[in-house]
Amino acid sequence: MQQKTNAYIAAFLVALIYGLNYTIAKEVMPTYIKPFGLILLRVIGATILFWGLSLFTKKQQIEKSDFLRIFLAAIFGVCINMLAFFKGLSMTSPINASVIMVNTPIIVLVLSTIILKEKITLIKVAGILIGLSGAILLIVYGKSSTPGDNPLYGNILVFINAVCYGLYLIIVKKLTQKYDVITLVKWLYLFGLILVIPFGWSEVQEIHWQHIPSNIYFNIAFVLVFTTFFAYLLNIIALKKLKPTTLSAFIYLQPLIASAYALLTNNDSLNTVKIVAAILIFCGVFLVTKSNAKPTAIPR
């Protein structure tokens, strides 16, 4: 029981970190660091932290047959996921991005139905259609208050990120039952680093460190340490005891946290489209998750 409680606490802390990250990362990109450059810094930092931490933890060997699954998890959970999200966030508003990410439970259900052969009901189908209609409304008509943004393209990339995150949760679930957290995440990030170097290297070279204000250095540190290191660590801890569909439900908290922080710091504003889209998405997610589903099977 205590382990389940700890998993819920870990999931909540992940939602809190990600909720704050929408605005904190947005303040960095693209003015001071371009999105792919920030991702490369993020993955380098996490790789160093996790491999360093592994020196003080129990050694565990990865079975050769599992390296392919870890590599696939790195593709969707580190490479495409992060690149699409940060690039999208750099072109849209924090509230837009956080509301679109609420579709993750719907995406996980659809992917679970396709990949894990999980049964789907009419209520869930209705929820999927309602939730996706809200996402489409926000993607097409959602605006950003930041000059120079391209919200349509940014919203599409954030939605792609949500799909990849859903795939990542399904792919990595079996691995969380087999390996300890540090062993798993250090390999995820090592593969992820190899994958993102070609995308971010040139943008890292363009950074003018001497022109970055001290408060932006704090933002960069938050992204590197909390959004990457602690969030992924806590996410794996939560996933050890929770189903992917349960864990993805904690994403409901992100737009509430993100909106409150963005409005408090004057980094975003509310409008009718955002409110209507949020209501549609929340209603869709509610319908998708309200019925009792059978335990999710893990692909072999």
In terms of topology, how is this protein built?
Layout: H1 2-28, H2 35-54, H3 67-89, H4 94-101, H5 104-115, H6 122-141, H7 151-178, H8 181-205, H9 214-241, H10 244-249, H11 253-264, H12 272-290
Core attributes:
single chain, 300 residues, mainly alpha, 12 helices, 76% helix, disordered C terminus
What would you say this structure looks like, in words?
- This protein is 76% helix and 0% strand.
- It has helices at 2-28, 35-54, 67-89, 94-101, 104-115, 122-141, 151-178, 181-205, 214-241, 244-249, 253-264, 272-290.
- It is globular, with a radius of gyration of 18 Å.
- The chain is built from 12 helices and no strands.
- The chain is an all-alpha fold.
Record field, number of beta strands: 0
Distance between the termini: 27 Å
Outline the biggest β-sheet: none
Instruction: Give the integer mean of the pLDDT values.
Output: 86
Structural class: mainly alpha
Helix content: over 70%
Shape: globular
Task: Figure out the total of helices.
Answer: 12
Computed CA radius of gyration, to the nearest angstrom: 18 Å
How would you concisely characterize the structure shown here?
The chain has 300 residues and is mainly alpha-helical. It has helices at 2-28, 35-54, 67-89, 94-101, 104-115, 122-141, 151-178, 181-205, 214-241, 244-249, 253-264, 272-290.
